[in-house]
Design brief:
- The protein has 153 residues and is an alpha/beta fold.
- The protein is 46% helix and 14% strand.
- It contains five helices and six strands.
- A six-stranded mixed beta sheet has the order 3-2-1-4-5-6, sandwiched between helices.
- Helix 3 packs antiparallel against helix 4.
- The longest helix has 22 residues.
- The chain is globular and about 50 Å long.
- The protein starts with a strand and ends with a helix.
Length: 153
């Protein structure tokens, strides 16, 4: 298992949780972004910089992810592509995307996009709450524990 991070939009607090998890679990975390991103010195953490452009980082992650990997993203189309490849997708608020819920999330995303394109102000997402950070950390721990149990590590 490897963890891929859609790093352009990933909150710093979530990256910090991931950096600690990488060291603790000794699992590779790769941040993918179209700008330079900070990575602490570690043999388990790296960054890939891609060209600027719409969805370039998402396309790179989708191309590199393997079944069983974990992708951290709030981007619903990327999460759908990841789930389709047999990987896991977790958003920074702690919601795990799955075959069971991804179609509904895509439909809602498309509906909201239609509203915005017709001029309706739908507002942006709320700030990440302490409860959401905790939900993310808990879900990440569950996924890493399951990976260790399945792989015998």
């Amino acid at each position: 298992m490897q963890i891929w991070v859609d790093a352009d939009a990933c909150p710093k607090l979530i990256k910090d949780i991931l950096f600690r998890a990488a060291e603790r679990a000794q699992i590779m975390v790769t941040l993918v972004a179209n700008q330079n991103v900070f990575t602490p010195p570690s043999r388990f953490i790296r960054a890939i910089r891609v060209a600027s452009g719409f969805d370039v980082a998402d396309e790179k992650i989708a191309a590199l992810v393997d079944p069983g990997d974990l992708v951290i993203t709030a981007d619903i189309p990327l999460a759908a592509a990841v789930v389709e490849k047999g990987a896991h997708a977790l958003n920074p608020r702690g919601e795990l995307y799955s075959n069971e819920n991804i179609r509904q999330r895509l439909a809602m995303r498309n509906f909201m996009e239609e509203l915005r394109s017709s001029g309706v102000n739908t507002g942006g997402p709320a700030s990440l709450s302490q409860a959401e950070r905790q939900a993310f950390a808990n879900q990440l721990d569950r996924l890493l524990s399951r990976y260790r149990a399945e792989s015998g590590n």
